[in-house]
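Intended use. Records like the one below are meant for learning the mapping from a protein sequence to its folded structure. Do not use them to infer anything beyond what is encoded.
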Amino acid sequence: MNDRRTTLRNTAFSSIGIYAEYFLGMVASIVIARHLGPGHYGVYSMFIWFAAIGIVVTNSGITTGVIKFIAEFRGNGNEAMIRPLLTYMRRVQAWHMVLVVGLAGAGLALAGHRWANTPNLVEFLLLAAAVAMRAPYMFNIAVTRGFEAFDATARVSMVAAPLNLALVVGAVLLKAPMFWFLVVYTTSSAIFLGISWWQARRLVARVPPAVPMANELSQRIRRHLRIVSVTIVVSFLITSDVEIVFLNTFASSAEAGYFKVAYQLATGMMLLVPGVFAAVLLPMMSKALSRGRDQAAQKFVAVTTYLVMLSAPVVIFGVCFASPIIDLLYGSRYGAAAPVFAVAILASAIGTANQGATSLLVSADRQHTILVMVVAFGAIKLTLDALLIRQFALQGAMVAILTEAVSSSTAYVLIGIRVSGARLDGRRLAAVALAAAGAALLALPVLLLRMPVLLTVLLGGVVVLGSYGVLTLWLPCWSRGDIAQLQELHARFARNWPRPLHRLLLRAGERASARAERTA
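Structure written out for the chain above:
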């Protein structure tokens, strides 16, 4: 199998696994949220967040190291080092897990009574068991990715995710209280662990017998863990919905529930649009940088522009139709989550715009710069959360996530400009903003039609996507090469139908060619 076919095959299986697990996980979370209501769902979400941070700390630097070093050993023909690597990493993971569970238990015993909505002993044991199974599950997934066995990753998702959803639906049909959803979470953790263990074991069985680990390799692994661990943990605090902990503490569990559904839906919608594109940014940027600084600068400008273009219609749709979207998915009890969803999807889009800059910094070996920025903005976000949520509750959380997104993305992009020597294409970005504003104005009247919620959301999506697409073609949003590619795709898959779109693409191509000649 040639490299191109292998890449396409891996991309397909990876996408199947990611999107299946995300979609079914989102359906499960919607079912739980509608069943429990905002108050109980806010507490449940905080418990799951505790488990999530436990998993991240347990695996901090380990899973990325497993992927990196397995791929490296396979590339240089040193596969005999894979077994000692896995043995060492599992030992480190075990010590991390003991530390995490021990510190969490001690913290609960010493200060749990001072905090509202803390887990009791049985709930704590369930969460600890879930961490003890989900962390090795993520380790096994890292092993499959290191072997580039994305079909194995997809099998895990395609089997375990539906079983998890079935358990959730069963608990809802039995009208189970919140405690039993923690039981479901722990049970599904065992399912994910078992299936992933089988897939990873099958791959490792092909590896040659182990050889002693060299001191140089041990030092590289420890250095990797030191640098990456802090970055991963603090990055999780920045990108995760840590605000639900502060809301449960300083406001109410219901407001935590509103924030949870809004933030999860917003980040998920944004992930689905640039997700596939973002997956290829790092190798793309590394390749461009290897060819010279000018190539990297051009790629950085193009990537940033395309990320903004891809994110804009999602933001317009989410902001304009926040209320009907929340009502359709979660019900009228979650109506207060609509403005949070509008702010969260804007913050997610702003955060998406800096992915080109972060890929450039990694490619340029600026990991220490990224580490400093991650720590700084992590401290800023936690400080804003503590101050604003204490004073303004849910509104404070909205201000905190938007402020952090704007400040961190601006900083990353400015540093990317400095490193590459590039200048962003202000004209194209302004045209994208104008197209987005025009699409919003055309979509807002749909809300005045007072149709059923489902029809409102569907029609709104069609109007936003259609009008935004047309406006980007009328305005200077696309380059001459982009238009040519669109024309080729339209001719190949739609045989230039409908004809108005064909004529629109022709005129857009003519205008793009004229602009290119004027600037040449």
